[in-house]
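Hi P.,

Sorry for the delay on this. The queue was packed all week, but I finally got your sequence through. Input first:
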Amino acid sequence: MNKLIVALCASAFAFGSVSVLAGNDMKPLSKMETQDAKAAKAAAKAKWEKMTPDEQAAAKKAARTKKAADLTALESIAQESDRYDAKKGSAEAAATKSQPKPTAAERQKDLTTLEKKAGPSQ
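Then the structure:
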């Protein structure tokens, strides 16, 4: 009985999601809109090529500033954390390699200490 109910719920969900996806009213660009988009792209490219290198640099800087202002707090933190400093990473790796490795007796002592803290197993 339970299998029948699960099967009915799953099929109802599947048919419901299909009908929702079928109601997509997004339309592709028509020929006229496509031509307008291509013309706008060509005009922008021509305008960019007419600009001096200083004007191009200023435009890039303005776009970067606008994008940074539009970022949410979470996005800006995520972008900052993506930056990896290779020199700092290699220094940290070298520092961990210079630490002495624990002996077998020290590892056994640590293991027994953890077992005592954990209590009896089930």
